[in-house]
Write a structure and sequence with these properties.
Elements lengths: L2 H17 L11 H6 L6 E6 L3 E6 L4
Antiparallel strand pairs: 1-2
InterPro entries: Bacteriocin_signal_seq
Protein name: Mersacidin/lichenicidin family type 2 lantibiotic
Length: 61
Amino acid sequence: MNIEEIIKSWKSEEKIEADSPINPVGEELSEEELQEVSGGFPCIITCYQEWSCHTTCLFTN
């Protein structure tokens, strides 16, 4: 990998992380918190060639 490819990869990873929902590692929800969860926006991240990614979130009832 040359320096340009490394930088491109690094920048695309930052964009993916910025577009992704927060998911704190090692943090678990209590039973009460799990019972309160409802609905949501399922999101799909699709990546194409050249490290180009697109986030699609679907509204559900």
